[in-house]
Amino acid sequence: MSEKDISQAVISRLPRYFRYLGDLKEKGVERISSQELSDIMKVTASQIRQDFNNFGGFGQQGYGYNVTYLYDEISKILGIDKQHSLVIIGAGHLGQAIAGYTNFTRRGFVFKGAFDCNPNLYGTKIRDVEVRPVDEMEEFVKKNGIEIAVLTIPKEQAVPMAHKLVGCGIKAIWNFAHVDLDVPNNIQVENVHLSDSLMKLSYNINRYENPNK
Predict the structure, then answer these.
(1) Could you list the residue range(s) of the whole structural domain that residue 174 is in?
(2) How many C-beta atoms lie closer than 10 Å to residue 83's C-beta?
(3) What is the largest CA-CA distance in the chain?
(4) Which of 31, 152, 169, 192 shows the greatest Cβ crowding within 10 Å of its Cβ?
(5) Radius of gyration of the chain (CA)
(6) Domain assignment present for 213
């Protein structure tokens, strides 16, 4: 099956499989069945088998899955078996929190630069990376072959910034600005709208407390 035929629902479950398999690997678990993985993850065993069959299956009848092998294969599918360089545009509280999260580095995402339009932040450091004026962003991205840009800036700034990033040859944008970006199809965009997540959480609280409404 070609990659374009794989649903976003399946793709969205891959990081979760990777995370659980990583935990099993750290505990020294060598193999696991789809049912055992189902019990841990609360995903049906049938769904797990269907998901993995999209990429070749990975399991053996009567044996289950080799944890290390499956972990490594999903790493390759996700593309995190290699490093990806990223910069953060917007070095305020959210940008600093993202840059400071060291687990990203463990997953192959290397924080290379931070940019902001606030002069008070110039020269300050986040994990030994100096915050630079946003005017220096384009040259930096081109010179260092940056693949991913993280946008933690106001929505009115996000759209023109995205256009600049496209012109710099960026491959993907992790967008925390509360606006949808209009970029070419070859630019991958992952939107993280925090208020949307909270509203979804509010809906689920309301549905649980008022099941008949």
Answers:
(1) 84-196
(2) 12
(3) 63
(4) 152
(5) 20
(6) no
- Count: domains in the chain: 2
Residues facing residue 87 across a β-bridge: 113, 149
Q: Beta-carbon neighbour count of residue 158 at 10 Å?
A: 22
Identify the pLDDT of residue 207.
87
What lies within 8 Å, CB to CB, of 37 at 6+ separation is 20, 43, 45, 48, 65
Report the distance separating Cα 213 and Cα 201, nearest Å.
17
| Residue 209 within any structural domain of the chain | no
Q: What is the distance between the alpha carbons of residues 213 and 200, in angstroms, rounded to a whole number?
A: 16
In tens, the pLDDT along 18-66 reads 999 999 999 999 999 999 999 999 999 999 999 999 998 787 766 789 9
Measuring CA to CA, how many Å separate 151 from each of 8, 94, 133, 180, 190?
A: 22, 10, 15, 12, 10
Interval 154-211: pLDDT, tens: 999 999 999 999 999 999 999 999 899 999 999 999 999 888 889 999 999 998 888 8
Mean per-residue pLDDT, 106-124: 94
User: What are the strands of the beta sheet with 148-151, ordered from one edge?
Assistant: 125-126, 129-133, 109-116, 84-89, 148-151, 172-175, 188-191
